[in-house]
Design a protein that fits this description.
Number of helices: 11
CATH topology of the largest domain: FAD/NAD(P)-binding domain
Largest sheet: 8 strands, mixed
Distance between the termini: 31 Å
Shape: globular
Radius of gyration: 22 Å
CATH superfamily of the largest domain: FAD/NAD(P)-binding domain
CATH class of the largest domain: Alpha Beta
Length: 512
């Protein structure tokens, strides 16, 4: 149970008995990493804070080791959300107290200085250099106890990447993660039953509650209310966990509204609110992803992949080229869905998973963009996305480097994620086929990293918010999720989003 003190509370679906009317200094929509940071910091500043979350809270008893069932319970649209309009890209967003921090791999990486230099130069930002943000990174890292993954929980499949990088002369390092006492169970994706992962439902949210914040779960925010140049609150409905069935109405009046609903949901809420905060025409535009290409490989020796941090090692060697390589694992039933073949051939590959490792490359496709649009009914987004031809070249390059690394590590077979390529490749010479001019749609890709749909820019004609997250069009409406990134951060986005949210919280507190 979440600990509370007088003034703080957590309300769950079973506790709603009628329409809800609330009032607060600040209402925060979304309890993921960014929203949780803002709620905690503002509660400690003395503000009355109401945190709204559409999903339910989960405990270890609720976690399902079955990957498919876990997705159906913790992911929007059952984990089957995808883009159209040129690129079929699966993308998953969580619906749970704590948001994506409940089911992600806990990766916390600071982008290098040159990322922020590019942001500042191209988007006319004056206070968003790495030096400006380092105190906020420091604060988040200290609170969560972020540290490199220790060797005793890496496991063979993670350390094989180190072997490969050492062989080829590339830099590599353990991944810094927000975990305490990790046992290397590899269950990040389905929920950490050991409670080692310091997700928001265990850290920022309980601390916000202790400071007096109130948390309402199972509340779907549907509109932001505004009068003139100011917002006055939000309205929505109570929704049943897992079914989404709507019931009682919810009305919250607030001095400040903070949207932290995510890259897809925040634009939909604004569009459903009468195209609010969209004088620039940028709400829902500029959608970017880190498309990920993953390669599975089989080794002569056992890799014992059931043991080890879900993602424990990476190389930043290729960041300036435009991609990052990291280890990866997922529940075997989900991996099986990506293995080629059927019948006995598929069973043979599944039986060999004890000798398997999976690594992926996340690619900064800066030239590739899409859109987020509200559907006529409901709050699910319609997503379009198209990969630019120059970014397709980058994807091919990232796939080739993954292939080189695997064979340098001693792999006997790799399974390339390319439609039309051989199902198995047994040497680097065999892999030359991957250098062909494959199209983006030939790659099996996915991405959970999304950005830029409500981007920051100092010019109100070219962005939705300023660099502190304040909407250009409205005095007291803020956005703090990764939608405000002006461009991909080149690394996993959670820590950057939290650092920006920490800064925004201080900015809001000074103006309450």
């Amino acid at each position: 149970m979440l600990e509370t003190r007088p003034g703080g509370e957590v309300r769950v679906f079973a506790q709603y008995k009628g329409d809800v009317s609330e009032q607060a200094d600040v209402v925060v929509v979304g309890s993921g990493p960014c929203g949780a940071v803002v709620a905690r910091e503002l509660a400690h500043s003395g503000a009355s804070v109401l945190l709204l979350e559409e999903g339910p809270p989960f405990t270890p008893q609720d976690f399902e080791l079955n990957g498919s069932l876990s997705m159906a319970r913790t992911m929007r649209e059952g984990g089957l959300r995808f883009t159209t309009g040129g690129q079929h890209l699966p993308t998953m967003q969580a619906i749970a107290l704590g948001g994506g921090s409940l089911v992600n791999s806990a990766i916390c990486v600071r982008p290098p200085s040159w990322v922020f230099d590019g942001w500042c130069g191209d988007f006319e930002l004056e206070h968003t250099s790495r030096t400006d943000l380092d105190p906020h990174f420091d604060a988040v890292e200290k609170f969560l106890g972020i540290a490199p993954t220790p060797e005793n929980v890496q496991g063979a499949r993670n350390l094989l990447l180190k072997r490969a990088c050492d062989a080829l002369g590339y830099s590599s390092e353990p991944i810094a993660r927000n975990v305490t006492g990790c046992r290397g169970s590899g269950e990040c994706y389905t929920g950490c039953r050991n409670r080692a992962k310091q997700s928001m439902d265990l850290t920022y949210i309980p601390d916000a509650i202790r400071a007096g914040a109130r948390v309402l779960t199972s509340v779907q925010v549907q509109r932001v209310l505004a009068e003139g140049s100011r917002v006055t609150g939000v309205v929505g409905q109570v929704v049943q966990p897992f079914t989404g069935r709507r019931s009682y109405r919810v009305h919250v009046r607030a001095k400040v509204v903070v949207l932290a609903a995510g890259v897809m949901a925040t634009p939909v809420i604004l569009q459903k609110s009468g195209d609010l905060a969209n004088r620039s025409g940028q709400v829902g535009e500029n959608l970017q992803f880190h498309p990920g290409v993953a390669v599975a490989a089989f080794f002569p020796e056992p890799t014992d992949p059931q043991f080890g941090a879900t993602q424990g090692y990476h190389t930043l060697q290729f960041l300036k080229e435009g991609f990052k390589i990291e280890t990866l694992w997922a529940p075997p039933p989900l991996l099986a869905a990506r293995l080629p073949g059927y019948g006995r051939a598929l069973k043979r590959r599944i039986a060999e998973l004890s000798h398997c490792a999976v690594w992926d490359a996340i690619v900064s496709c800066h030239r590739s963009t899409g859109r987020v649009r509200a559907r006529c009914f409901g709050m699910q987004p319609r997503l379009t996305y198209r990969i630019h031809p120059e970014d397709t070249v980058l994807l091919r390059r990232a796939l080739w480097v993954l292939t080189e690394l695997f064979f340098a590590a001693g792999a006997r077979t790799i399974l390339p994620p390319v439609f039309g390529a051989p199902e198995e490749l047994h040497s680097l010479a065999d892999a030359e086929v991957l250098r062909r001019a494959w199209r983006a749609r030939d790659f099996a890709m996915a991405s959970t990293h999304a950005f830029c749909s409500t981007r920051m820019h100092s010019d109100p004609r070219r962005g939705v918010v300023d660099e502190f997250g304040r909407c250009h069009d409205l005095e007291n409406l803020y956005i703090v999720d990764t939608g405000i990134f002006p461009r991909s951060p080149s690394v996993n986005p959670m820590l950057t989003g939290m650092a920006l949210a920490h800064r925004s919280a201080g900015f809001i507190a000074e103006r309450l």
